Amino acid sequence: NPSILKLTVKCYFKDFGPALPPFSTRESPDTVFVPDSLYSLELNTNSFFLTMPSAGFYFVEPQGASNEGLTLFTFDETFPGVSGSKEMIQCTRYIMNREEFESCMDAQDKKAAIDKFWLSVGGSNERARELLRRYYGRVKEANKYFTSYTQGWKSDRGMVFIVFGAPNNTYRSKKDEVWVYGNEANPSALRFVFNKTKNPFTDNDFVLERSSFYKEAYYQAVDYWRQGNVYIDGRK
């Protein structure tokens, strides 16, 4: 657009944590982010150059626009896969208790720590390897489909997908997504409602309608993993 003569580049370097449990009453961090820094670019030619950060994202906004522009993300080279032992520990937080998580994060040898965790859960090297493959396979899928302003595994949909697996049925509209686990005719079937939020950086940001109703089902799914099983709608 030749009428655009100046751009504002807003820089965001925040490291977002994992999604809160589906029954949590705590409020999630506000997604209307204040940039860590910003600068302007004069458009004297048809092109401009940006040096991307090692982690984070840039929001490139034409002068005079309001929350309209281009978002450029930087993730690890292994993305959508898991980048290393530290991230393996971080995305396993959904099925770890606080003591286990802090112990693994504080460990000098993080690879040995996360391997020990999965071996204790699986009970054998063979079972542990299968659990690793299936759990981090879900993390990779979550990154593929649910990444927004942060990695997909950290999103609400990512959290539910990793712990519960793929839903039996999914209903989508312009405003929301509804995931159904189990037989819809059964009153005990789980329904997760994710509402699409207004986010200037992405059109893939959905927030879960949290409820204490999910607490028992969530802990049952986590316990199932911790007993050495892959949770798929309550089945191995």
Topology:
Elements: E1 6-12, E2 37-42, E3 56-62, E4 70-74, H1 85-91, H2 98-106, H3 110-122, H4 125-146, H5 156-164, E5 169-172, E6 176-181, E7 190-196, E8 206-208, H6 215-226
Antiparallel strand pairs: 1-2, 1-3, 3-4, 5-6, 6-7, 7-8
Helix pairs in contact: 2-3, 3-4, 4-5
Based on CA atoms alone, the radius of gyration comes out at: 20 Å
**Major pleated sheet:** 4 strands, antiparallel
Low-confidence stretches: none
Query: So what's the overall shape?
Result: globular
Total DSSP E strands: 8
Strand numbers in spatial order across the main sheet: 2-1-3-4
Give helix % range.
25-40%
Give the count of helical stretches: 6
Mean pLDDT: 90
- What share of residues are in beta strands? 15-25%
Strand/helix succession: EEEEHHHHHEEEEH
- Overall structural class, as computed from helix and strand content, comes to alpha+beta
Cα(first) to Cα(last) distance is 55 Å
Any overview of this molecule?
The protein is of the alpha+beta class. 31% of the residues lie in helices and 19% in strands. It has 6 helices and 8 strands, in the order ββββαααααββββα. The protein has helices spanning 85-91, 98-106, 110-122, 125-146, 156-164, 215-226; strands spanning 6-12, 37-42, 56-62, 70-74, 169-172, 176-181, 190-196, 206-208. The strands form 2 sheets. A 4-stranded antiparallel sheet has the order 2-1-3-4, with no helix packed on it. A 4-stranded antiparallel sheet has the order 5-6-7-8, with helices on one face. α2 (98-106) packs antiparallel against α3 (110-122), α3 (110-122) packs across α4 (125-146) and α4 runs antiparallel to α5. The radius of gyration is 20 Å and the shape is globular. The N and C termini lie far apart (55 Å). The mean pLDDT is 90.
